[in-house]
Amino acid sequence: MWGDNGRTARALWGGGLTLLLTLMLSSCGDGGGQSEGPTGSASGASTGSASRTSGGSRTGLLYRDKEVSLSNVQAIKNGCPSNVYVEFADSGPRVLGPEESNPRLNDDGDQTDEGRPPVLSWSPPCASASGQLDFDDVAVAKAAADAGDLDQAGCQDAARAAVSNGTDIDGYRTRALVVGDRFCEDFAAGGRVILLRVVKVSGTPVAELTLSATLWAGPAKTQGAPAQPGDKNYENQPFTVSDDVAKTHDCSPGGVGLGPDTPYVNYRHRLSGGGGDIEYFPSCLTGNPKIRFSAYAARVKGGADVDLTACQDAAARGEGNDLDVPVSKLRTGDRFCMFSSFDKYVALLKVTAVTAKAPVSVTFSATRWEAPEPS
Hints:
By secondary structure, the protein is mainly beta. It contains 5 helices and 23 strands. The longest helix has 14 residues, at 152-165. The protein starts with 15 loop residues before the first helix and ends in a 5-residue tail after the last strand.
């Protein structure tokens, strides 16, 4: 995917063998050259050391600060595609040509993360005046300016935390970009973590954009056996709802989904509410911010441990529709049980932190089980 032209072989031995080895090495290359794409370019930078497992898969740092540039001029010259795609392969970033198909689609034309590297798409100004960077549909976070240096674990943690507090992003307006902005993506399907940093941004609308990419490799997400009734999906997984994040989404209610893999928060349903299994109505919508539990839900009294059976029984005896609890009535340590006969799960929710005065914030830990078979 990367060209070999212009790479200089290292001198190894003297004499006639030097020339032969030089020619051989020049033809092989080391992945650190430069490739011109039809709507941009990708340039090499220093690569990090990467170990190999017994199976030959790469782990650790694959490369650091390899730059990729996107140009509206080049897009126009190539027919102004609605989207320009950049693949972040293990060898380095590559801008795809207009004749290449959408890399996010499989041979059947369906969206997939399997068997492909992370991908970023850019809508150039000639196709869209608003300008947009679209990330993969996975955990993506805009890293805080004061986050310091980010390694593989730090970048991955930032992306996953964004899913649990509603700050994860799937797209970003190019007009809002500034030099130094950083984005972390946890591409779990391929076991890749990518850090993107804005190096250059120019034009109104943005017509020239340069990003640097750092890529790490780890174990890919594997699909185990399907969860069986009574199995625990996860334990003490945190999620947070807050006024601060709601305000950045036009004061939308927050919706929490207790998915089978992890809790996730979003604020993307302005008219219908946050949706999901739990809703948060922020201070900017009501003078008395509240949490709404859906399905069957009940507050757990006492301090005894709560297992699957006890939690399901408590929830089944609770509210049958929506249970509303004002944030002012919440205390650290409060527990709630939920049971959904439709989605077939039981969940134990514990308040681990609460700020009742604006800006309000509530953090829960969630434990989720597959609902047992009806008895």
